[in-house]
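Narrative of accomplishments. A recurring question from our advisory board has been how the design workflow behaves on a single, concrete structure rather than in aggregate. To address it, we present the structure tokens for one chain from the evaluation set, followed by the sequence designed for it. No filtering or post-editing was applied between the two.
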């Protein structure tokens, strides 16, 4: 049975209240509480986009135009992006990546979701993926300080990995000479 427009609006309103509450917790650095509120927001908002018109929208993000992204999809994308930010702060890169990818499924034009994906990749150690995506983001905003900070994080992780590799290789050659 289809929901009435009033039911849909009530669910959306309740979902957005949870999102706003999550934002309040996030700003106060209560990330676990923020995640709980964002999850509740998703419970209210999922399915609101499942109308007859959404089946006409291309499912391949590369075929989609930005104006074809529905408001419910944008809402879901923002919430998933916020969840990814929480997971980045809680040092859960795998979950951050998952949430960012879900956000991009809902709205492939969400630049903040792409940035959260970069952050997840950096923390996971997938530096090549992170750098490639960051290159794409920097085309539109080359002077963004957050992008520059992640670029420094990538360089630091690469230097750390190189140092570790040199140490391991040095030990290997030391053993061979004995």
């Amino acid at each position: 049975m289809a929901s009435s427009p009033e039911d849909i609006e009530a669910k959306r309103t309740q979902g957005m209240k949870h999102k706003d509450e999550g934002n309040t917790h996030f700003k106060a650095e209560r990330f676990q509480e923020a995640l709980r509120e964002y999850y509740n927001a998703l419970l209210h908002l999922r399915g609101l986009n499942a109308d007859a018109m959404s089946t006409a929208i291309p499912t391949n993000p590369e075929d989609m135009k930005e104006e074809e992204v529905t408001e419910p999809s944008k809402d879901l994308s923002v919430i998933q992006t916020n969840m990814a930010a929480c997971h980045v702060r809680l040092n859960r890169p795998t979950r951050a990546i998952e949430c960012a990818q879900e956000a991009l499924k809902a709205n492939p034009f969400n630049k903040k979701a792409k940035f959260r994906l970069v952050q997840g990749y950096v923390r996971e150690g997938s530096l090549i993926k992170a750098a490639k995506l960051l290159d794409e983001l920097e085309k539109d905003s080359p002077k963004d300080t957050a992008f520059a900070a992640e670029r420094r994080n990538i360089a630091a992780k690469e230097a750390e990995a190189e140092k570790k590799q040199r140490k391991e290789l040095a030990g290997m050659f030391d053993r061979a000479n004995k």
